[in-house]
């Protein structure tokens, strides 16, 4: 079995003071560096449809209104190697035109180049889904792929 498209094509991360975030068509991923040796009982994480909060050892690391809505019951967090928290958010709107420009409203925005690369990746991911027999993971596209790229559905 081959690897999922997002693993073959890589991620386009947006760096933050606490770690990074990135996205696929369906999910948003947040990776937060925490002090080595952190235990799960030290973590307080609340994931709601449009709001997130994360505190470690009583120190708030991330809190605010998400860029767009998520499916509350499908959000998860894990503590990996006792030094990184990975949060996975399931997007409510899962089309290529829904490329988050920032993680939170008005905070942790991707710079224009990163935003362009994120949109490019989501567009290629959409092409992969629409054409499952082809591998678009290494494809190069040019032109305007904002809002999900060109619409080939009528061809």
UniProtKB/TrEMBL annotation:
It is found in: Chromosome, Centromere, Kinetochore; Cytoplasm, Cytoskeleton, Microtubule organizing center, Centrosome; Cytoplasm, Cytoskeleton, Spindle pole. Keywords: Acetylation, Centromere, Chromosome, Cytoplasm, Cytoskeleton, Kinetochore, Phosphoprotein. GO terms for biological process: protein folding. Gene3D superfamilies: 2.60.40.790, Single helix bin. Residues 14-104 form the CS domain. Interacts with LIS1. InterPro entries: CS_dom, HSP20-like_chaperone, NudC_fam, p23_NUDCD2. It comes from Leucopsar rothschildi (Bali myna). The gene is Nudcd2. It comes from the Eukaryota. GO terms for cellular component: centrosome; cytoplasm; kinetochore; spindle pole. May regulate the LIS1/dynein pathway by stabilizing LIS1 with Hsp90 chaperone. This is NudC domain-containing protein 2. CDD domains: p23_NUDCD2_like (cd06494). GO terms for molecular function: unfolded protein binding.
């Amino acid at each position: 079995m081959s690897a999922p498209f997002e693993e073959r094509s890589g991620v386009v991360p947006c760096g933050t003071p606490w770690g990074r975030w990135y996205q696929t068509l369906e999910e948003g991923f947040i990776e937060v560096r925490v002090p080595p040796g952190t235990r799960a009982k030290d973590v307080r994480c609340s994931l709601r449809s449009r709001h997130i909060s994360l505190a470690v050892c009583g120190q708030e690391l991330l809190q605010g209104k998400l860029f767009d809505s998520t499916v509350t019951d499908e959000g998860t967090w894990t503590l990996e190697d006792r030094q990184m928290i990975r949060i996975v958010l399931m997007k409510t709107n899962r089309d290529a035109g829904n490329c988050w420009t920032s993680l939170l409203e008005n905070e942790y925005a991707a710079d224009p180049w990163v935003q362009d690369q994120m949109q490019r990746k989501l567009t290629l991911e959409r092409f992969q889904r629409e054409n499952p027999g082809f591998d678009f993971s290494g494809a190069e596209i040019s032109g305007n792929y904002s809002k999900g790229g060109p619409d080939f559905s009528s061809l």
